[in-house]
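User: Hey, quick favor. My workstation is busy. Could you predict this chain's structure for me?
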Amino acid sequence: MPPTTGKNASLGPGAKTRHGQRAGLAYDDLRQMIVSGALAPGERVLEEECAARLGISRTPVREAIGRLVTEGLLVKPDGGPHAVHRISADEILEILNVRRLLEVEAARRAAGSPGRDDLLTLRRVFVGFLEGHKPDADAHMAADDALHERLATMARSTILAELVANLRLRTRVFDKGIIPDRFEPGCHEHIAIIDAVLSGEPQRAEDAMRLHLTGVADSILAHLKAQP
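Assistant: No problem, here it is.
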């Protein structure tokens, strides 16, 4: 076996594993800070400051920042430091249009696929949201993510699932307070999507998902037009 070369040549298997774990944790922490708004749109993201904040060295932070740039959550303006990507209204609507294309296909493919138990569980969650106390934003977001991710997985396409997950993540970091509250109509639409998929009717599932994402986009447009 040829000798190991390159910058990690001196690292044994255990050290490489620990390094990969630190980079993964740095990525998870930074991504959560971006999604939650702890790192605001336009805010600079400096390796040294992030490393100190997370209590790790700069190398795993550098790798995490590289992943976040690839995913579109961070940008690096010419001559400047990395910063949280400030997603414009036009960009969020473009993302929603692409999501509509992908997730309509995912819903169509999911109809009749294995996974009924998970969908039935999620259906009970959304019905509970409507019939019981309104959940907090985190609980609602978790159920929303779980449904869309489950449908993408049921579509039996790894690439499709990865694209949907990335675009949904970018939707989440749209400036806080801009996306209007669609809690009740969203719950009804999610239940309709689940019922269509469970019925094994591809066209019905496709139509339900299209209606849902069109409603989200239309609501955002109406909200933006109402701004002074």
